[in-house]
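Researcher: Please translate sequence to structure tokens.
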Amino acid sequence: MIDSHCHLADKAFAGDLDAVVSRAKDAGLERVLVILEGGNETEAGQAARVETLWPEVRVAVGVHPHMAHEFADDPARAPSVVRDQILGSPAARAVGEIGLDYHYDHSPREVQQEVFRAQVRLARELALPVVIHTREADADTMEILSAEGRGEIRGVLHCFTGTPQLARAALDLGFYISLAGIVTFPKAEQLRDTAKAIPDERLLVETDSPFLAPVPFRGKRNEPVHVQQVVEALGRLYGRPAVAVAEQTTANFHRLFRP
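Model: Translation complete:
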């Protein structure tokens, strides 16, 4: 199994990182993709600890839309910061998470869009996939990926909770779709219906830990070992053994991120 999106460099794991990594490895996780905020030195330092404990881990670096306002005076500075961090990290395999978030609007929308566009161009320049965060911004997200990606960009819509139309648009661009613990929630029937239409070869699984713990761990801190619950839920949904889902999503991860 592979957790394709987690935040092991988050302060939530600072106190027991060794144990969290041990639990994941003992459960059979091959590796995880750790998401890092571009320019965040605290996260970079903890990521170095993760890599020491678990050399197989890989990282993605990007400016999240919530943080785009920090680059409002010079949006071109965002890809510069991300580029430097990626080139300085042998474990880097993607630009992300990047995108648009019109639900919280922690950054002005026009600034989010400029920073997002600049990072998609960077990913194209570096020939790296992108990890996309999109919330209540479907049309603008897909327009930017189409316009700036120019058909050359690969990537994944992470923690997917969108509409069947968004899933279809992403698949048409050649993107992967990643499902997290939300797929285990009792009221997520619409998401499960959408998940049934995702081709096997385009599916990824994740925890987005420390957030969004799956059933039966809701309300607690999430961690990579709980990707097992996502895999098992999808096995039940698809009528296949969980091990088959684990093998397929692992192969998909390798194809996209080339770890």
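Researcher: Any highlights?
Model: The chain has a mean pLDDT of 97.
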